[in-house]
Write a structure and sequence with these properties.
149 residues; membrane; flat; transmembrane helix; transmembrane
C-alpha cells in the first residue's frame, strides 16, 4: 500500500477516525474495493512472477548460448534484458549490503526493482519469439490432398 501512496500521491484511505465515521457509504465501499483490487494484483504478481522469471532466465541463457555457438551478434532485446537483470541484481546487492551492515529498517526499497523485473521478462520473451519467427520451419505435409489437414 506504500507503493500506491508513493505513485498516486494520495492515501488509500484516510487515517483519522472522525473522517472515517463521517464518510458517505459509497466512499467506504470505494476504499474497500481499492484495497481488494490492489491485494488481488499483488497476490497474482507474487504467484506468477517467479515462474515467469525462471522461464525468462532460461530464454536469456539460451539466447546467449545461441549467439556464442552461431557466432552472431547479440540482439538489442537481449542487451536490454541483460541490463534489466543486472539492475535487479545491483539493487538487491546494495540493499542486502545496507541491511547487513547498518540499517535493518530498509525493507520496502526493493519495490523499485519490480519494474525492472517486468522489463526483463518481457524483453526475454520478445527476443525468443522474434528468433523463433525468423527460423525456417518445415512445411506441413497434407494427407491425400485434403486442404483441411
Amino acid at each position: 500500500m506504500v507503493l500506491f501512496e508513493t505513485i498516486t500521491r494520495e492515501k488509500l484511505q484516510p487515517s483519522k477516525r472522525l473522517i472515517l465515521n463521517n464518510m458517505p457509504e459509497y466512499h467506504k465501499d470505494l476504499n474497500k474495493e481499492k484495497t481488494r483490487v490492489l491485494n488481488d494484483v499483488s497476490s497474482f504478481y507474487r504467484m506468477v512472477m517467479p515462474v515467469l522469471c525462471s522461464v525468462a532466465l532460461c530464454c536469456v541463457l539460451f539466447s546467449l548460448l545461441r549467439s556464442l555457438v552461431q557466432r552472431v551478434w547479440i540482439t538489442p532485446l537481449l542487451i536490454i534484458s541483460l541490463a534489466a537483470l543486472s539492475g535487479v541484481l545491483a539493487i538487491t546487492f546494495i540493499l542486502t549490503l545496507l541491511t547487513i551492515t547498518s540499517y535493518d529498517e530498509i525493507t520496502r526499497a526493493l519495490q523499485v526493482a519490480y519494474p525492472l523485473l517486468v522489463l526483463f521478462v518481457i524483453t526475454a520473451f520478445l527476443d525468443i519469439t522474434l528468433w523463433w519467427r525468423q527460423q525456417p520451419h518445415a512445411p506441413v505435409q497434407q494427407a491425400d490432398g485434403d486442404p483441411f489437414l
